[in-house]
Amino acid sequence: MPLPKPTMIALADSTAFATTRAQPAVARGPRRRHAAVLPGFGTSAAITSLVVLSLIVFPLAVLVLRAASLGPAGFLAAAWTPRARAAYSVSLTASLLAAAASSLLGLLVAWVLARVPFPGRRILDALVDVPLALPTAVAGLVYSALYVKKGWLGQWLVPLGIQGAYSYLGIVLVLVFVSLPFAIRVVQPVIESLDRDAEEAARMLGASRAQTFLRVVLPAILPAVATGFALALARALGEYGSVVFISGNMPFKSEIAPVLIVARLEEFAYAEATTVAVLLLAMSITLLVVVNTLQQRLARNAQ
Amino acid sequence: MRSKPATTAASRPLSAVLVAGALGVVGLLIVAPLASVFYEAFARGVGAWWGALADDPDTRHAIWLSLTVAPVAVAINTVFGVAAAWLVARFRFPGRSLLISLFDVPFSVSPVVAGLALVLIFGRQGLLGPTLAWLDWKIIFAWPGLVLATTFVTLPLVVRELIPVMEAIGPEEELAAVSLGASGWQVFWRVTLPNIRWALLHGIVLANARAMGEFGAVYVVSGHIAGATDTMPLRVEKLFQEYRQPASMAVASVLAGLALVTLVAKFVIERRLEAESRDLEAARSLPDSLDHTKVEGAVA
């Protein structure tokens, strides 16, 4: 039973171990017939429930109840203003674009890391984790400096009419940066564990390289790519720190939902901030459920 | 995997194209920004860089604040992570899978939403606002709020590292210790902790990096008062808003340097973890794998 490769995306193996790993007969809760042999159930349960209830369940419940107290009409009036609708649309489209780009580019990088030996592969592998360790504020600051007219990349791109800073494109760029590792790290181990014999058999039976990839490899890695996409999307939808630097935050144009929440909060418009936050929370929780379901399927496939 | 030649002669051009593509993606999206932070920060020389950091009292305060908030959040995370991993990896009880899913919530919830939830509880117009005002305690726009927000966003990091490792090691050694008469704390200090120390350190390093760099959640609860509640990432933003880009880049370069140190530490710790899991596997595959002295010897 090898240890799972530790990655910074702990989410990637969130439920997998709970459902798939064969359990040794562990102490089975405190009140069963074979009373707990191992100590510490009470202490660990107390600490865990204290932290989870007070830091996760209680705050989010307060948020939802506060929004619910507005009533359906009040909720709609606060959550569905033209400015909020524009923010949802920017958030959703930019995050979907970024997650799609991350999935495609991530598949390429994951494939190379898993399959193609070349000097410096370990360095490339380590560099993939940079967006997870680099504070998002730094990423936003640097991206905006790179893509302005005088920046390293902007000096070539701006004359071509490509505005990477203070634009919609800028939002997508930083979202790709923050979500790329999620797309790579979920797919990479699955490619590593692929059965090469199936591919060789397909090639021997006369399939072209493209056919082999589309008919043999892609179906096998699709659940992992989908999981990576969902994780990238969840990360992108909630991102604030980096976008605030690069988007220009123009209402109706380049304002994302989290930026709108902060703007409303600073105006003390609690109702609007809360309702937008609840909608964003609902999207995150939905994505979390999707990811968990996909991962259970992944774990089943791996067995 | 490495024993097989990964590419046949015919696919070499394709491999070269793929490698070039991957290098392009990582180079453009990751390496260029990273290099640019340090370039911009040191463009006017080391003296100017140092001056931007040390001569500005608000920046000095931000660095100091980050250094006091992050360790507290990491300490809470460590205690919680060990307790929660012990609970989930060593006991079966109703609601266990739901609990595991709840650990993941801070990963998927927007930090801004988390910050707002804290404001709705502890803010002046929040649920506990009147009580806190009566007690004259300040949580929002103050140090405790920063710690709470930072703890929330880093909450899954330690526990997520520990659960798989504790599940893989299994409870046999701990059960043996208990049957030999060890107390709960003895089992923890002498058996569990030595077994999970690298995974724990890994989680702590990740949690610390996230805690130092957190922006969204902290932004909402801090009120960004310069010289009082601005952490390093918030200081980067404030300097940027004030069009003081060189100073902003100087603070950003400190955070980027910290991220690089984190990655190196992570790399070293992961090699230790891999080595330990190999040892564990080797010990398990011995015919007399029930001999726990051997397992322990191999793991230690």
Note the topology.
The complex is a heterodimer of chains A (303) and B (300).
Chain A: H1 16-20, H2 41-68, H3 71-79, H4 82-115, H5 121-127, H6 130-133, H7 136-147, H8 154-157, H9 168-192, H10 196-204, H11 209-238, H12 241-246, H13 257-266, H14 270-302
Helix pairs in contact in A: 2-14, 3-14, 4-9, 4-11, 7-9, 9-11, 10-11, 11-14, 13-14
Chain B: H1 12-42, H2 45-54, H3 57-90, H4 96-108, H5 111-122, H6 129-135, H7 143-169, H8 172-179, H9 184-213, H10 216-222, H11 232-241, H12 245-285, H13 292-299
Helix pairs in contact in B: 1-12, 2-12, 3-7, 3-9, 3-11, 4-7, 5-7, 5-10, 7-9, 7-10, 8-9, 9-12, 11-12, 12-13
Based on the structure given, which CATH architecture of the largest domain in chain A is correct?
Answer: Orthogonal Bundle
The separation of the N and C termini of chain B measures 28 Å
Biggest sheet of chain A, open or closed, and with what strands and sense?
none
The CATH topology assignment of the largest domain in chain A is MetI-like fold
Poorly predicted tracts of residues of chain A:
1-35
What percent of the residues of chain A sit in helical stretches (DSSP H or I)? Answer: over 70%
Q: Quick one: CATH class of the largest domain in chain A?
A: Mainly Alpha
CATH topology group of chain B: MetI-like fold
Number of domains of chain B: 1
The number of helical segments of chain B is 13
Mean pLDDT of chain B: 88
Which superfamily, in CATH terms, is the homologous superfamily of the largest domain in chain A? MetI-like
How many domains of chain A, as an integer? 2
What's the alpha carbon Rg of chain B, rounded to whole Å? 24 Å
Give Rg of chain A in angstroms.
23 Å
Identify the overall geometry of chain A: globular
List the quaternary state of the chains.
Answer: heterodimer
Order of SSEs of chain A: HHHHHHHHHHHHHH
| Helix/strand class of chain A | mainly alpha
